[in-house]
Fold this sequence. Notes:
Glutaredoxin, 42% helix
Amino acid sequence: xxxxxxxxxxxxxxxxxxxxxxxxxxxxxxxxxxxxxxxxxxxxxxxxxxxxxxxxxxxxxxxxxxxxxxxxxxxxxxxxxxxxxxxxxxxxxxxxxxxxxxxxxxxxxxxxxxxxxxxxxxxxxxxxxxxxxxxxxxxxxxxxxxxxxxxxxxxxxxxxxxxxxxxxxxxxxxxxxxxxxxxxxxxxxxxxxxxxxxxxxxxxxxxxxxxxxxxxxxxxxxxxxxxxxxxxx
Length: 233
């Protein structure tokens, strides 16, 4: 009974021959990818092809991601939030009227909490001045929340933050910022970022004794709230 030579034995024999002649090229330079895979065990060859495809696909995705971010950055360089060069600012909403918008805002919040960076959170549902502030910067463009600024520069929304986080670029952008302690919760506002105005107790009105009439409280917003002095810069 005759047996066919082992593919592994054949490859080893060819390697020995190539080593006997230093001037010859290594075996892998003589054989094409197909020739090498043909001599392998079918299961090994299949695993190799899958790994090779995954590697090429990953590189392709990384290139696409970098290209997308470069293009995005060049189109938004003119958008700048003055006075915030020392912080991360996130415009978001705590209202659940539009489920996707609310979930996107939560996702961005979780990413920044994961890296433990202090964030200046600006809830447009709690203070309408934030909405106007954002609209003025975006020059009337209609964009969904959340919107993120780092050191005054406009970064984008959830997709841009996810891409930066996945590629490790977000960590580079956040270098130098202060970090929060794990599990930190503000005792004053309970992470709401707003507290009732201490001047008018949230009524939005103050009584002017000299003139004998009430006037609009200058400290609070339309909801009778002020930014929490305990956790908001």
